[in-house]
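Case study 2.
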Amino acid sequence: MTFEIWIAFVFAASANILAPGPAIVLAIRNGLSLGMGKTIYSTLGNVVAIGCVGLAVTLGLGAIITTEPKILSVLRVLGGSYLLWLAYQNWQRGMISLDHLSLDDEDATDTMGDARINTNIADTDSIRRSSASSRQSQRSAPYLFRQSLLVGLTNPKMIIFLLALFPLFLNAEVATTPQLLLMTGTFMGLSFLSLSAFAYTAVKLSRLIRKPATVTFINKFIALIFFGFGSSLIYFGMTTI
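Prediction:
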């Protein structure tokens, strides 16, 4: 693969990666709720999923799907079902919380030695900190990684895109496996940069969001987005089975 062809692949891959999808919504949600430190694990989960799909394409997934096209339909239904579950979680439980911001602010205040904080406020603060800690424990690094990995692995859009994109940039006169691995690695790197950028932007915006009503609206809105993605995948999956 020449440098010119690789640059063309980078532009084509970037156009797909920047298109709105479940992975971007998930990165924004986690960025708003958890900050950049933990959201990076979610990003890594998606990148690993891309690597797995790229490796599968390299090993001949295209031939299998051509023989049994219903595999993609099943993936659509599975992926759509998981997105509906994420929609339910966001709608019912309000998965976005800005507790980590208030805790950071209070820690800064504590270092200033404000002697006016009385015992009752301290007790209330302890209870709220315990609640926030419980919420954060439900978003551990392994959980975030597995969640994003599952979203990526059950995303037929990525499989179809890689199956369609990779052949366009292959040079048939040289070994194809190194070229496919290079494109897979490039796609993983671009995805990591893109999702990190979306998450970082969400982290910055989260500090402007303080009103509980605004947080509730965002939770409901993201739930509707997941519902839309999930319903569409299930619909197209069921109609092609």
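The chain has eleven helices and no strands.
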